[in-house]
Design brief:
With 110 residues, the protein is mostly helical. It has three helices and no strands.
């Protein structure tokens, strides 16, 4: 059975994640995974004693903010991957302009 203390740990994790914002990095993703695991471990919230409507509304608001941050992170990551692909294409085109082998010997005269 999940206790009220466990519920408040999840709320604290959510507040930390929202205050961190989308830092666009591995730390944000690991914090998001920790929050997701904690949220999944809560199970049925109706079993938690003395849980009020305000507590549930707070969790819902925080969860909505986290979902929007995760969506922003997803878009930013997708944009970064597109930029890297474009840079990769440019580098490959640049490399392909040169001869496949280079000679360091000078040509003989006469």
């Amino acid at each position: 059975m999940v206790s009220r203390k466990d519920f408040h740990k999840v709320v604290d994790l959510a507040r930390e994640l929202v205050s961190r914002e989308a830092s666009h990095g591995e730390s944000f993703i690991s914090a998001l995974e920790a929050y997701s695991r904690a949220m999944g471990s809560l199970g049925d919230l109706s079993e938690i004693p003395d849980l009020g409507r305000e507590d549930l509304e707070t969790l819902e608001d925080l969860n909505q903010k986290i979902l929007s941050l995760a969506q922003q992170e997803k878009v930013a990551t997708s944009d970064d991957l597109k930029k890297l692909a474009q840079k990769g294409k440019g580098i490959r085109k640049y490399i392909d302009r040169f001869p496949s082998r280079m000679s360091i010997r000078r040509t003989k005269k006469g």
